[in-house]
Each structure stands twice: as structure tokens, then as C-alpha cells.
Write a structure and sequence with these properties.
Number of strands: 22
Helix content: 10-25%
Strand order of the largest sheet: 3-4-5-6-9-10-11-14-15-16-17-18-19-20-21-22
Order of helices and strands: HHHHEEHEEEEEEEHEEEEEEEEEEEEE
Shape: elongated
Strand content: over 45%
CATH superfamily of the largest domain: Porin
Number of helices: 6
Largest sheet: 16 strands, antiparallel, barrel
């Protein structure tokens, strides 16, 4: 019934169309033959009566065979039509699925990537070290120096949230190295809620961050620290100070300033009986001010006070720094004073300094650093570091560093491969 149903008006039309095409094909062949046999007779002169006579000569058997062929071709055409309908339905279903998925990725017509753009950063270094033991033999070691993965998300033009996940070589684990919310306040540019031409930028930060005391915190990332380790004077005072709290910063071009309030860190000491005592810190506050009389020079001063639970000052950190950049030469120096619990008779003040010089003639650079520490007036440590590096890529360097400690006799030689992006997205590190 279904097949016979197809042979209604549509089927008759298809048969007639195909029959006409067949007859036209026969006509064309006859015209070509007649033109060839009669020496180029004009085919337009062949009359319809001649062709109709030939069509009348077709037997009923020939017409039946032709009709059977037409029915077969009609079945093939309907099969192709069904295939086209099926493919069209599948394409429509895919388009609808993609449309729904796109709607799921949007909020009120905006893509989530446009509402909440996310940036990723990473840096790290490997090194090979050779160090002479007490018995005079050299000890080799391969190790990971730093590895950090950082992410920053813009919540609004004036507000960003950042996090850093850092590898700890001692525990062989990743930990939280930073987690901050940074909100701009006033400055140039439409991203500041309060726009003014008087200052470049200002803002407030809350969270876990590298405390902006001095200038060495700007080079905590291994990709920025071309002489491998922290200067001796920094390591003996506040080290790589990372803490929870808040900071308020301002940059006016020729003047920059930051104040902070954080948890602080405690210390231990031996009392008169030789017992080790621990003095915790309940709160620490301080800041730094930098002045640039010219673009190439910056002078700075830092200070921090540490309080115990009774709001008594238990520690004082103070320092001054100088930075000079001229052509390919970069000079950096800092003096740090650290006083702990001045009411203890057996405690002596700690202070020290370091100076660094790096000359960059791309793709090579040369660098050296000298650092010394004191307890009152007695020298407690000296360190000389020298290195040469080669930039293999825009964000990757191979470095050769030699470090010697005059007091402890350490003298490691290192080959370091450092690479990645310098992550400085917040505060005065922008």
C-alpha cells in the first residue's frame, strides 16, 4: 500500500518527466546522426512529425521495460530524500545542543570568560650544585630550587583576587604561597574608582603576601633572582617574610609608599640558665617610603615594630636602600638593623648590609654581590657571590653561580636553569 501510495500525482509527474527526458535524448541522438549523414543539415529543420512517427514504432514491451526502470529510479530518489531528511534532523539537533551549551556558558548574554577573565603564571628553576665537604671531597646534587603556579582573576575593573601555589623542597609538597584580594582606590586610568592625575595608582590588599619591607621581596621569584639565593643580611634578619594581614599602597611616580599590618614572627633566645625561650609576636606593623629624584635613582627607608600580647615592642626592624639603573647597569644596596627585646641583657643587636651589581648586555649578563652581618660590632658572616648568565629564551636563562661564605667555609658552585613569568600582580609589584 505504501509503495502504491507513492504513485499518485507525484509519481505520475516523475514518470512523465523522466519519459520526456528519455525522448529528448533520442531526439538529440537522431539530430546528431542526421547532421552527420546529410553533410551538416540544420537540426532545427527536423519536423515533429518525424519524431512522433519514431515514438509510435516503440513496442508495448519496450514501454513496459522503460516504465520498470523509471519505477526503480523513483524508488532510489525517495530513498535519497529520506536520507537527506535524516541528516537535516541530525544537524538541527546538533545546532540546538550547541546553542544550549553556549547559553549555559553565559550569564545574561555575556560569556563567563568576559565576566571573570582568569590569568595563569608559573616560574621555577632546576639546579646542579657542587659543594666541597669538610673532608675535602666535592658533593654533587640535583634539585628543584623553586616551583610556583599562580592564578589571578579579575572580579571587576578595580578588584582582583590572586593565589600562588609554591613547591616546598624540604617537604616535597605544594603549599599556599599567597592569597590576596587587591582593590584599587585612586589613580590614573578608568579602572580606578576615583580618577586623578595626581598619582599613578593606589589601593588596599588583604590576605597572605610577601611583606613589603625593604626591596629584596621584589626578587623572591627565581626568574628575577639572578644570583640564586637571598642575600646574607636579609636571611639573618627577616628572610623571605611571608605573612597574613593587610597593606595600603600608593605610587605617585616620584614617590611610592606602603604601610602594612600583619601577624609578625617571633624568635627564640637562651636565658641566664641556658634554657631556650620563645617570644611570639602578636602583631607587627610597618612600611616603606621610596623617593626617586630622577628616573634612574630611588632612595628608600623601611621600618617595622613587633608587639607581644601586652602591646610591648619585642622587635624592631629598620633599614635603608638604594637602587640605581643606568643603561645596562643595575645597582642595588640595602642596610638592615634588627633589634630584639632590648630589655634582655644578654641580647645583642643584629645588623648587616649587602650590595649587588649586575651588568646586562643581552643576551649575556654578569653579576656579583657582597653581604656582611654583625652582632653589635662583631662580624658574624661574610658572603661573596658571582655569576654569569645567558638568556636562551625571552623567559628562560641558564646561569653559572659561585658562592663563598668566609665564616662558614661554604663554597657551592651551581648551574641553574630558571624560566617562567615574573609574577608581580599586586600592590607596588605591578
Amino acid at each position: 500500500m505504501r509503495e502504491n501510495g507513492r504513485w499518485g500525482f507525484g509519481g505520475a509527474f516523475v514518470v512523465a518527466l523522466l519519459a520526456t527526458a528519455s525522448v529528448a535524448e533520442v531526439d538529440a541522438q537522431e539530430e546528431t546522426s542526421a547532421a552527420s549523414s546529410q553533410g551538416g543539415r540544420d537540426t532545427r529543420e527536423v519536423s515533429k512529425e518525424e519524431h512522433s512517427g519514431r515514438r509510435a514504432d516503440l513496442s508495448p514491451g519496450d514501454l513496459g521495460a522503460e516504465l520498470a526502470q523509471l519505477k526503480d529510479r523513483e524508488s532510489q530518489i525517495w530513498a535519497e530524500v529520506e536520507g537527506l531528511k535524516k541528516r537535516e534532523a541530525e544537524r538541527t539537533a546538533r545546532d540546538e545542543e550547541e546553542r544550549r551549551a553556549a547559553e549555559a556558558r553565559t550569564v545574561h548574554g555575556q560569556k563567563l570568560g568576559e565576566l571573570l577573565p582568569i590569568e595563569f603564571f608559573a616560574f621555577g628553576d632546576f639546579y646542579f650544585a657542587l659543594e666541597e665537604n669538610e673532608d675535602g671531597r666535592w658533593s654533587p646534587e640535583f634539585a628543584v630550587g623553586q616551583l610556583e603556579v599562580d592564578v589571578q582573576q579579575t572580579l571587576a575593573d578595580f578588584l582582583t583576587i590572586s593565589a600562588a601555589f609554591a613547591y616546598d623542597g624540604e617537604t616535597n609538597n605544594f603549599g599556599l604561597g599567597a592569597f590576596t584580594i587587591d582593590g584599587l582606590i585612586a589613580g590614573r586610568g578608568s579602572e580606578h574608582p576615583f580618577q586623578t592625575e595626581a598619582i599613578e595608582t593606589s589601593g588596599v590588599i588583604f590576605g597572605l603576601f610577601d611583606v613589603p619591607f625593604g626591596i629584596d621581596y621584589l626578587k623572591y621569584a627565581s626568574i628575577d633572582r639572578r644570583l640564586w639565593d637571598v642575600p646574607l643580611a636579609v636571611a639573618a634578619s627577616h628572610g623571605a617574610w611571608n605573612d597574613m594581614g593587610g597593606q595600603l599602597y600608593l605610587d605617585a611616580g616620584w614617590l611610592n609608599a606602603v604601610v602594612f599590618v600583619v601577624n609578625g614572627f617571633g624568635y627564640t633566645y637562651e636565658d641566664e640558665l641556658g634554657q631556650e625561650q620563645e617570644i611570639p609576636s602578636e602583631l607587627a606593623s610597618g612600611g616603606r617610603v621610596g623617593i626617586s629624584p630622577i628616573d634612574e635613582v630611588e632612595l628608600g627607608g623601611s621600618a617595622a615594630l613587633f608587639f607581644d600580647i601586652g602591646a610591648n615592642v619585642e622587635q624592631i626592624l629598620a633599614g635603608g636602600d638604594l637602587q640605581v639603573v643606568f643603561a645596562g647597569l643595575s645597582l642595588q644596596g640595602e642596610y638592615i638593623f634588627h633589634q630584639r627585646a632590648s630589655n634582655l641583657e644578654n641580647f645583642r643587636d643584629l645588623h648587616g648590609f649587602y650590595g649587588t651589581a649586575i651588568y646586562d648586555f643581552d643576551p649575556l649578563y654578569l653579576g656579583c654581590r657582597y653581604s656582611q652581618t654583625f652582632s653589635d660590632e662583631e662580624a658574624t658572616g661574610q658572603e661573596l657571590t658571582a655569576g654569569v648568565g645567558f638568556k636562551v629564551l625571552e623567559a628562560a636563562e641558564v646561569r653559572f653561580v659561585y658562592d663563598t661564605g668566609f665564616e662558614d667555609g661554604s663554597n657551592p658552585f651551581l648551574i641553574q636553569l630558571a624560566g617562567g613569568s615574573a609574577w608581580q600582580p599586586t600592590g607596588l609589584r605591578r
